[in-house]
Structure formats: structure tokens, C-alpha cells
């Protein structure tokens, strides 16, 4: 982790909803996020620290209500941890720079990776353009 802030600093930087999802591993309501039906070309960055996470060319509609990607962007810094909350074993994905919760990755995505990153809109900011 390269960015470390106190709880108080995160609370000042983020809205209550952003704080709840990104810093407390919450989940936004499905079909509610601003990036769910968002198809512009560009890059998705970590809300908390701005690091690159995903590029729009790996985004697809999984019908699950959250933005879905089949791969992280080249050079993205995403780490995986086993999440056993809610009586399930899932793989949680976090920003490795600031440890923000992003969402989960599931083994049921499309080719070429076969993975589905199910990510909360509220944890990302979008920058139009970037690599095409
Ligand atoms: Zn981050």
C-alpha cells in the first residue's frame, strides 16, 4: 500500500455513500450506479487515489446491476483477498495503492479471461479517452 490515510481523512474526502462502500467494503444498490450503463471509451480510476483500474474495452454487461469487466487494465494495481463474509467464499478485489474496496471477481466471465470483475460504480471515477 502506498497511500495511507486515517479514517478521519477518508471521511473528509468522500461522501458518506462513497465511504461506506470503498472504505467499509459495502455494496451499492444494483442498477443504481452511474457507471453501470456507461459505454463511453475511456479509463476507470480508483475513486480514493486515482490509480488506473480498468479500461472500457474490457467492460461488458453481465446483467448483474454493477459495472462488469473481464480484465483489469494493463498495469493496474488490483489485489485479491479471500472474503468469507455473508456466509460465502468470494474473492474481493481492492486497490493495492490505497486499499479501497472495489468489488468482487467471479470465475464466470467471458473469454479470454473467463473472469468477471463486479465493481461498485461509486468506487471509480471515469476519464474519457485514454488508450483506445
Ligand atoms: Zn486506490
UniProtKB/TrEMBL annotation:
Keyword set includes Zinc: yes
Keyword annotations from UniProtKB, A to Z: Metal-binding, Oxidoreductase, Zinc
HAMAP family in UniProt: MsrB (MF_01400)
GO MF annotation: an example: zinc ion binding
Active site: 118 (nucleophile)
GO biological processes: protein repair; response to oxidative stress
Ribosomal protein in keyword set: no
Gene Ontology CC terms: cytoplasm
Catalytic activity annotation: L-methionyl-[protein] + [thioredoxin]-disulfide + H2O = L-methionyl-(R)-S-oxide-[protein] + [thioredoxin]-dithiol
Gene expressing this chain: msrB
Protein name: Peptide methionine sulfoxide reductase MsrB
Family membership: Belongs to the MsrB Met sulfoxide reductase family.
Needed cofactors: Zn(2+)
Enzyme Commission no: 1.8.4.12
Domain MsrB per the UniProt entry, residue ranges: 7-129
Alphabetized InterPro entries for the sequence: Met_Sox_Rdtase_MsrB, Met_Sox_Rdtase_MsrB_dom, Mss4-like_sf
Cofactor binding description: Binds 1 zinc ion per subunit. The zinc ion is important for the structural integrity of the protein.
A Pfam match: SelR
Binding site for Zn(2+): 46, 49, 95, 98
NCBIfam families noted in UniProt: peptide-methionine (R)-S-oxide reductase MsrB
